[in-house]
Structure formats: structure tokens, C-alpha cells
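Many introductory courses stop at the sequence. We go one step further.
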Amino acid sequence: MRKMVRGFDPDIVHGHYLTVGGLYAALSGGKRIVGSAWGSDIYYGPKRSLKERLILKYVLRKCDFVFAGTKDMAERVRRNGYKGDMAVFRFGVDPSIFRRTSPRSVTGFNILSIRPCSRIYNPLVILNAFKTGMPQMGNAVLWMFDFGNMVEEVHRAVDADQQLRERVKFIPKKPFDQMVEVYNSADVAISIPDSDSAAASVLEAMACELPVIASDIPPMREWIDEGATGYLSAIDPVRVADKMRKAYSVRAMLAPMGRRAREKVLDEKNQGTFEANIKVAEDSYRKLLANP
């Protein structure tokens, strides 16, 4: 890495995920070091491991500028000793692509789990919540993505239960340009990770006018207004089932909730769009380059 940086001599070396890419950047010998905090590098890794705590502290000492995915994440970076310049930067979404393109179903009720079947996204909690809520949700169907490090375990749970076999459907990994159709097929989205940033999938769903059931964690509280743009839930099957049933019970109101969700993404002060975040990044880089 240092050899490449010496040969290339970039003005800025930017490392993503502070305890991995950020470490490479910090060790690169570059003129100006920028780091991006994305979630578990702040929320979980340093709590679980002394090694990761030490790496994080080292990287933050080396950084000239840090981007954080949410306001809460920025506060966590400060708590870990960083005193330099910062900005909130999100992935953002292109609202001209991600938008409502078809009317909602008037007969069915489709719940879309918008994250992979991976441990951090708690797919079994979602599955068990759906099973708990099924008796009160008519002909509701749960759609889950058919990939992730727990997908085999999820399939086993579905295969072992006749009711779930009939009401849980799997979606193969889709190219980016087909995701709009996937979002538009649903009535409500769900995403309940243990930790998160401003997840692109959540913003994409909201831009497609989907209310979102999300983990009650600080990054999601910035986006989900209870009963207005979606619902917040503890990561617990009973609590998540309550929110699913609530969404079903007010399904006639999901369309206006979805419109409010899109409006929240489009509001420039929330930095929900790709364009708004590119402007933040460009302005931050210019500021950094102005300092010799």
C-alpha cells in the first residue's frame, strides 16, 4: 500500500470502514487521510475486541477528516477521541430511479424484507414475527432475499412449517435496475439489523413510497417517524409481529405514509439523495485540499 501511494502520490487517501479500509489509509503514508465510519466499525467491533479498539483509536489519530453515515455515528466517533473536521455522508438514493411506478395491491398484503438473510439483519426474528402475526394478517405474504450467511437456516425453518411454506416467498439476488420493481411489489418494507448506517436499501424503499418497519436504533430514528413514515421496533419477534399487525390494520393509510417517507428522503436537509451527499463530499474534499 505504501509503495503504491508513493508511486501514485494522491492528494487524499480515503479508507472506508474505519477498522479495515481506514487502517490501510492510515498506514499508507498519504498526504491527507480521510476515513469513513459505516456502522459496525463504530458500534460493535471496538466493543468486542481490544484489538479493534486500538485500531480505531490509531486510525482516528491519523485522520485529517472523517465522514460518518449518521449523526449518532458522528457522535460515537467523537467519543472515541477524534477532534478533527467531520461531515455526515450517506450513500443516498437517486429519486428519479427509485420511485412509485405502479399502484399498490388492493387484495393482498406483501411484506418485503429488504436485507439479505445474514445474521446481522436478524432474518429468523423477521420469520418468527411473521409466523406470530399471520393469524391477524389475512393473506399476507413475506418476501425474503434468497442469499446471505443464514439463508440455509432460514430455508430449513420455512420448510419445517407448512404455514410458512405457503406464505413465505424467496427472491433471488436482483441487478440494481430491477430493484425498483421489487420495491413496488410490496406494501411495507422491513429491516431490523443489530447496527446500521443510513442504509441505502431503506432509503430506496422510502423513495419508492414504502413505509418501513425498522430497528429502534439511533440511525433509523433519523428516518423513521413512528406512524408517519413507518414503525420502529425492538429486535424481538413479538414486538416485530406487533408492528406487522399494526401496518396491516392501517393498510388503507400506507399510501400516504409512503408519500411522507419519500418526502423525507427528498428533503435536502436530510441528505437522503445521492446528489445531496455528493455535494457534501465535494465540499469536504475542497476544504481539506485548501489546507496545505
